[in-house]
Amino acid sequence: MILAIDIGGTSSKFGLVSPGKPEITEYRKLDTPKAVESRGLAGLLEAEIGSYLQRFPDIDGIGMGLPGLLSKDRREILELPNIPQAGRLPILDRLEEKFPGIPLKIENDAKCATLGEFRFGKQENLNNFLLVTLGTGIGSGVIIDGRLFKGACGNGLELGHILVGGERTLEEQIGLPGFLAYAGEQVQAQGGKTVLQQDNLSGKAIFDAATQQDTLALSLFAHLGKLLGEGLVAAVRLLDVTNLLIGGGVSGAFGFIHPSLKESMESHLPPYYTSSLKIRQASLGNDAGLLGAAGLFV
């Protein structure tokens, strides 16, 4: 049995996974900013891992996804953009000292989600694909010939940090904080011609408005899809991968995002790519990160 951990900029998730089975038990979810502010990231992990080990002493290993850059040997956190207070942290040294004898593995959270889709997802015979996770940040991972691509120094394919449409990164524009800031500007410009309210904006509020066919909400998701498509054009050109999966918390709006995403990509790619281009919603939803963290031991 593996203790799987998925640390995100907004929430941190914990759960137990039996090897080879895409089932999560003893699930626990925490507010990341509050937990990190009160205990620090290392303190949070020590407390939660200690609690699980006390209750479930038969845990065989601990797999963890972290939202940022890691050392090539996967022992140290280098930078977590959405948890800046974590700083540079030799996390495996600290946890191994606290919990000797328990195997620990860490990986980038989006790469964990990619592993989760590869090992446990419902897409069959998918040995080459790119996953993009839409949430607080924009994460990405790719499987090439059945293997997780990490890049020369271990942090390849940081799609969210490429420049799109000028001097701002993709994450700055369509990561949840940037997306909501843009939505607020558009709500103000609409002058009341929308059900959206500037003082009550959230991803869910925009999704609910879109399901009511609110014109502004639909245009916001179209804007997101267009920018994401522009970023994915670069990824497809670089990696020659045309199976694309869209995951993460915002991916529930896939139906609203997909038309402009597809149009954006098809208008910038030649038939060599578009003839085999498939853009689908990832199958594991918000469980992908935890299952992929457990999959580090498969």
Topology diagram in text:
Blueprint: E1 2-7, E2 11-17, E3 24-31, H1 32-55, E4 61-66, E5 69-70, E6 77-79, H2 91-98, E7 104-108, H3 109-120, E8 129-134, E9 138-144, E10 147-148, H4 170-174, H5 176-190, H6 203-211, H7 215-239, E11 243-247, H8 254-266, H9 271-274, E12 278-281, H10 288-295
Parallel strand pairs: 1-4, 4-7, 8-11, 11-12
Antiparallel strand pairs: 1-2, 2-3, 5-6, 8-9, 9-10
Protein name: Glucokinase
Family: Belongs to the ROK (NagC/XylR) family.
InterPro entries: ATPase_NBD, ROK
Percent strand equals 15-25%
The amount of helix comes to 40-55%
> Mind summarizing the main beta sheet?
5 strands, mixed
Total strands: 12
Order of helix and strand elements from N to C terminus: EEEHEEEHEHEEEHHHHEHHEH
Supply the CATH superfamily name of the largest domain.
ATPase, nucleotide binding domain
- CATH T-level topology of the largest domain: Nucleotidyltransferase, domain 5
> How do the strands line up in the largest sheet?
3-2-1-4-7
The first-level CATH class name of the largest domain: Alpha Beta
Give me the Rg, rounded: 19 Å
Measured distance between first and last alpha carbons: 11 Å
- SS class: alpha/beta
- Count of discrete alpha- or pi-helical segments spanning 4 or more residues: 10
How many domains? 2
What is the global morphology? globular
| CATH second-level architecture of the largest domain | 2-Layer Sandwich
Uncertain ranges = none
Mean residue pLDDT: 94
